[in-house]
Design goal:
This protein is α+β, with helices and mostly antiparallel strands. It is about 50% helix and about 15% strand. It has helices spanning about 1-10, 15-30, 40-50, 50-65, 65-80, 85-90, 125-150, 170, 180-190, 190-200, 235-255, 285, 305-315, 315-320, 325-340, 350-360, 365-370, 385-395, 395-405, 410-420, 430-445, and strands spanning about 100-105, 110-115, 150-160, 205-215, 220-230, 270, 345, 375-385, 430.
């Protein structure tokens, strides 16, 4: 249980007797105290040491390997405090009533209910994870259906030249005004040349994903990964011809939309088989969350949004890559504004019918970011004051990890609150009678504020 981890966080300190005693006493009393520094060295030491709360969190994260989940909540916390996102995202995670729900989903994981969600797939670290998980499952099912019916998949990458001072919003552009990448894609797909290419290579559908990275040397690298779905398999010679024609048309469309002419080296087209990395179409954004630890590159390959957010909360990662905090915040804010309203995943009109058959109940990004209460069980309630305290500390994500830790569930949460937030121990409700009363009130209530226990 979590008690053992809290105790371990106490016992792991074996330097400086005063600091050791402080950590033990603070954990035993279940509250955070402040060191009284007597000299400069002791002051410097304490600044570099984690307090008992943080040490317990790190031990649990390491055991459960849930660092990424915790990072997303911490990143959102910083984005909101520094006003780097829009007003709607500023409100994401805020309680909708005097109680916040702790629910268990079908995977025996903790889900937080009765909080506001922004459903921003590009700018919100928390909602992004929920939406992308749903879209990844959706895309996986579509891929299986495509392969089962005998179709072939070819992946192409569409890029354009870019520089350090290029504005991301200008690069992204708009399909309505036929500018930037979105405008270039519209020109590309509406052209007679594209229709001829479709006919010659038996292209039936496409799936397009937007992706962006930031390099400190070359600026924003915005691009498309596209799956082209064909009726037949294309031989290598024909693929080369296809790639040449596609590149020529994309170059023409890009220049017409105000982009710089793309490099031939930046355009790639290849057969995509089941042996290839599953869902590579989504890899740089959707799988990179597993690879954000120990960020370090040459500055040319670029950082995805997960890595940028990781550096936002990790001073050492910023220093290792020589990225200033103000520069990082400015770029994240620029990205949030530039990508607002753009789609992450786009299906060709012809593929939408197949998608609708596979998914009769089409789920929007908003649906995916919201919790389905019918698939969960109410386990406990937070008072809004306690929730705000935890939110301010940036450890909402850690609660989910705590819940899963050694399958301790609600007991872990209660022990954690009692140990480190004793002043709020009465703000967590777990008894079944009160929870049943709350549920009955909510079932007959149109307003969450009516649930007064």
């Amino acid at each position: 249980m979590i008690t053992g981890t809290i105790a371990k966080s106490q016992d792991s300190r074996n330097e400086r007797s005063e600091v050791q005693n402080y950590a033990n006493n603070a954990a035993k009393k279940g509250q955070k105290q402040h060191l009284k520094h007597q000299d400069t060295k002791k002051d410097e030491y304490s600044k570099n040491r984690e307090n008992p709360l943080q040490e317990a969190l790190e031990l649990v994260r390491k055991k459960e390997q849930k660092k990424v989940r915790s990072n997303s909540y911490q990143a959102l916390n910083i984005l909101q405090k520094n006003e780097l996102v829009s007003e709607r995202i500023q409100n994401c995670g805020k309680p909708l009533s005097q109680y916040v729900e702790g629910r268990e989903n079908k995977f025996k994981e903790l889900a937080i209910g009765k909080i506001e969600t922004c459903s921003s797939v590009h700018s919100c670290p928390v909602c992004r994870n929920k939406i992308k998980t749903g879209r990844e499952e959706e895309l996986s099912m579509i891929e299986k259906h495509i392969r089962k019916t005998g179709y072939q998949i070819y992946m192409a990458t569409f890029t354009a030249r870019h520089g350090l001072n290029d504005d991301l919003k200008t690069i992204v552009g708009s399909s309505k005004t036929s500018t930037g990448f979105l405008g270039s894609w519209r020109i590309f797909t509406k052209s007679h040349q594209y229709k001829k290419i479709k006919s010659d290579f038996a292209i039936e559908h496409y799936i397009r994903v937007t992706e962006d990275t930031l390099s400190v040397k070359t600026g924003w690298h915005f691009h498309f990964h596209v799956w082209f779905i064909t009726k037949k398999k294309i031989n290598n010679h024909a693929i080369n011809d296809w790639a040449k024609r596609m590149y020529k048309l994309w170059s023409k469309s890009s220049v017409k939309a105000g982009l710089k002419k793309p490099s031939r080296m930046g355009f790639d087209l290849r057969l995509w088989t089941e042996q290839n990395n599953e869902n590579y179409l989504l890899k740089s954004d959707w799988s990179a969350s597993k690879e954000i630890m120990g960020i370090k590159n040459d500055g040319k390959s670029g950082f995805n949004i997960y890595q940028l957010e990781r550096m936002l909360i990790d001073t050492e990662a910023r220093q290792a890559n020589e990225i200033g905090e103000n520069f990082l915040k400015a770029k994240i804010k620029e990205r949030s504004k530039a990508l607002k309203g753009t789609r992450l995943l786009t299906y060709s009109p012809s593929l939408r019918d197949i998608r609708n058959k596979l998914f009769p109940k089409d789920k929007t990004d908003e649906d995916l970011s919201h919790m389905d209460v019918k698939e969960t069980t109410l386990k406990f309630l937070f008072g809004s004051k306690l929730y705000w305290r935890l939110w301010y500390k940036g450890i909402i994500g850690d609660l989910k990890t705590m819940y899963a830790f050694e399958k301790g569930g609600v007991e872990n949460i209660v022990q954690f609150i009692n140990a480190f937030f004793p002043d709020y121990s009465k703000d967590i409700v777990t008894d079944e009678i009160t929870l049943r009363k709350y549920s009955l009130i909510m079932e007959g209530s149109s307003s969450p504020d009516r649930a007064t226990l």
